[in-house]
Amino acid sequence: MAALELTNISKHFGAIQAVNDVSFSLDAGEVLGLMGDNGAGKSTLVKMIAGNFRPSSGAIALAGQEIVLHKPLDARRHGIEIVHQDLALCDNLTAAANVFLGRELRRGFGPVSILDYRSMYQHAGALFRELKSETRPRDLVRQMSGGQRQAVAIARTMLSKARIVLMDEPTAAISVRQVAEVLNHIRHLRDRGIAVILISHRMPDVFSVADRVVVMRRGRKVADKPIARSSPEEVTGLITGAIEMV
């Protein structure tokens, strides 16, 4: 049974049809590359899965059960997490504080409690070690590289025991070494049985880590196939319209 299934999802904003009749499924432990030019409808589609937008029509199902998402908190309750392109981190806080932001651990008795920094540092450190990241729990985010920041955002999804992680351009504007680090993080999520949707313009990244690729153009899905049966040249043709549909 698919971890996520979209059936005839559409979204319009007045007269503008942003997403038109898109269907696909995603299995647990599968990485799906979602590709398309600017304005193709990728971000709108992902925002519907994340609970930011309600579909104008169509259905979203998790493990065979149809769900209705009114807000992002609903998606999180169903195990759907999103790593935004800007990462939504607090630069003035430590890595551990960002991982536990809004879910801080406390200790104490009765009405009196204090933040349990020691437990948060230990737990965050274990997550970073699992990701094989050089990120340290006490490091301030503003002093981190792009790859380390991604590790913090991904550790946050692991803390919440996510079943599906949506990643929006995670390798944009970072160095080659940091790109390799982020792609390894994605593989780690896959190996934990977490389904990943990777939005990216970077063809090598998608072909390096994804199991399947879905290509969108002008709000429609024009391809959905295993990476092994496609090529960067074909995907480029689908994105630009040189190839109509496969």
TrEMBL record:
Listed InterPro entries: AAA+_ATPase (IPR003593), ABC_carbohydrate_import_ATPase (IPR050107), ABC_transporter-like_ATP-bd (IPR003439), ABC_transporter-like_CS (IPR017871), P-loop_NTPase (IPR027417)
SMART domains per the UniProt record, alphabetical: AAA
UniProt xrefs under PROSITE patterns: ABC_TRANSPORTER_1 (PS00211), ABC_TRANSPORTER_2 (PS50893)
UniProt GO MF annotations: ATP binding; ATP hydrolysis activity
Domain of life where this protein originates: Bacteria
A Pfam cross-reference name: ABC_tran
All residue ranges annotated as the ABC transporter domain in the record: 4-243
Family (UniProt): Belongs to the ABC transporter superfamily.
This protein's name: Simple sugar transport system ATP-binding protein
UniProt source species: Mycoplana azooxidifex
